[in-house]
Write a structure and sequence with these properties.
364 residues; alpha+beta; six-stranded mixed sheet; six-stranded antiparallel barrel; 7 helices; GcvT/YgfZ_C; Aminomethyl transferase family protein; GCVT_N; transferase
């Protein structure tokens, strides 16, 4: 199992294996981690992500053939959030692609790191491209409405000019640190990439610093809840077992006017055929136990399944995603889920289920 290069300084909390990688579930208090993410800033170790540098004169053409968004016109310092698909239009990986002056950086989260690496190497063929793991680099993500302020204070640098899906290089203690404005929760978010030694120092400073707002080291439990509350695709839970890209409402990273990437023809075929089921959010009583795969009915017939769910500290309810047959994949319906403790009433919802504070806050 792959562990992070920051393991020695990370929290001694609860861990889970995700995609062959050791991932922190909680540093000890998920509710406080979640509060920091929603009201201040939560930082988490991403060094077990797949971090790859692609070089060579054919690197842009190579990525253009794999990515579901245009890469060849990506400006230096900008980032594309896109998919790599296989020939059946199934997701190989959800990735961030950063263009640098003479190379590209591909970042794949825990669950997709190994498949993305294998796919790139399999598809590289005769292309003039070198694919290298960034083993000397560590990555830390910080998300939340005050995350921009935390990064700014940490590096004593103005980062308000870094736009969404853009990056900047900040020189800090003699090293060039890459700060990328991306995240997974719809709050302000930044990925910080640095040498392992500098990343350890950054991690300690975030943990031990004196802040005017909540700043906590966090894990996957708080992250998944925040993603669920805005129905951000969660590829750990929302898998092909429950549906395809369109049925799971995962088409966020598809550029429809782009052609000729792997999986495009099959994807367009699925799009033309339409969908017979769809993903929708739902709420239920706070003490509900609705495991993945449990049936949803209209009171008589089975019309779908629960994909996954979590207790929401803000809503004080159980919140989840279900895939339902049409025409039931709509908000405002009362249905029944067959949970661990028997039948539970669920209410379908429109997203986002919670509005992130970052949507209404300006950096100043």
């Amino acid at each position: 199992m792959i562990t992070s290069s920051l393991t020695e300084i990370a929290a001694n909390g609860e861990y889970e294996e995700i995609g062959g990688r050791n991932v922190l579930r909680t540093a000890g208090d998920t509710q406080e981690e979640y509060r920091a993410l929603r009201e201040g800033a939560m930082f988490y170790d991403c060094s077990a992500y797949g971090l790859f540098t692609l070089r060579g004169e054919g690197a842009d053409r190579f990525l253009e053939k794999l990515a579901t968004k245009d890469i060849q016109y990506l400006n230096e310092g900008n980032v594309s959030e896109c998919y790599f698909l296989n020939e059946e239009a199934e997701i190989v990986g959800s990735v961030f692609i950063l263009r640098r002056e003479d190379s590209f950086v591909v970042i794949a989260p825990w669950e997709h790191a190994d498949p993305v690496e294998k796919w790139m190497k399999e598809k590289s063929g005769e292309e003039a491209v070198e694919i290298e793991q960034m083993s000397d680099t560590a990555a830390i993500t910080i998300e939340g409405p005050e995350s921009w302020r935390a990064v700014q204070e940490l590096f004593s640098a103005d980062i308000t000019g870094i736009g969404l899906r853009s990056s900047d290089i900040i020189t800090w203690e003699g090293e060039d640190i890459t700060v990328i404005r991306v995240g997974r929760t719809s709050e302000y978010g930044y990925v910080i990439m640095a040498s392992v030694e500098k990343a350890k120092e950054i991690y300690r400073l975030m943990r031990e610093g004196e802040w005017d707002f909540p700043v906590k080291e966090g894990g996957l439990d708080a992250l998944e809840l925040a993603m669920l509350e805005v129905h951000q695709p969660n590829f750990i839970r929302e898998t092909e077992e429950f549906g395809d890209i369109f049925e799971l409402a995962q088409q966020w990273y598809i550029q429809y006017d782009k052609e000729d990437y792997t999986g495009w023809e099959r994807l367009m075929e699925k799009f033309s055929n339409g969908v017979k089921k769809g993903a929708v959010g739902f709420s239920a009583a706070a003490d509900s136990e609705l495991p993945a795969g449990c049936e949803v009915t209209d009171g008589t017939d089975t019309i779908g399944r629960v994909v996954y769910g979590r207790y929401s500290y803000k809503l004080e309810k159980f919140l989840g995603i279900a895939v339902l047959d049409n025409p039931y994949a709509e908000a405002g319906l009362k249905l029944t889920a067959k949970g661990t403790n028997g039948d539970e009433e669920i209410n379908t919802l429109s997203g986002p289920f919670i509005r992130p504070l970052s949507w209404d806050m300006k950096m100043e």
